[in-house]
Protein: Twin-arginine translocation pathway signal
Amino acid sequence: MTDETREPVPGEPSTGVDETEPAAVELDDTTAEASPPAAATSTRGTARPGGLRGILIPAVLAVLLLASAAFAAWVYVEQYRPDDQTSSTVAASAMDAASEGTVALLSYSPESLDQDFATAKTHLTGEFLTYYTQFTTDIVTPAAKQKDVKTSADVVRSAVAEIQPDSAVVLVFINQTTTSKENPAGSFTASSVKVGMTKVDGKWLINAFDPV
Structure:
């Protein structure tokens, strides 16, 4: 049996449906493809740049600060060591150098002037060395040779008045005996001297010599 197309009857109201078109076919549920779910974006296991910097930078800074502090401590202990460099041992070393230098400065004989003055100069430094060289050359040497002056000094006592890692002031008490043509029996003098010391290449040298 064939379907016949029904002709519209004049005057009959139209139903608005085109009977020539087949009815809409509903899709079976099995024919509809489920759209794949949106891929879930996971941040698990993914390092965030900001978070990594936040961890590493403070750690690096902490290491650098510790290293800097350790280096500063080493410099302080090894290079400066104010307690060690002004200890009783250092003070005794400066005091011994001042006493030995004082004896060399104030002891000489006409027979050995050049050697005596040369020995004394090994204990001196700076402007005082220059002054001593000129003084012994211009004044002491002519007088000692002309009047046959001989003098010797002994340190009775010494004490450190000031001490720094590279400088010191030592108070030296001395007894000095002097003989000459005019006074062969000799004269005795007790005096005290403030001796300024400075360390040059690890050795204490006299840079000032002032009677007190």
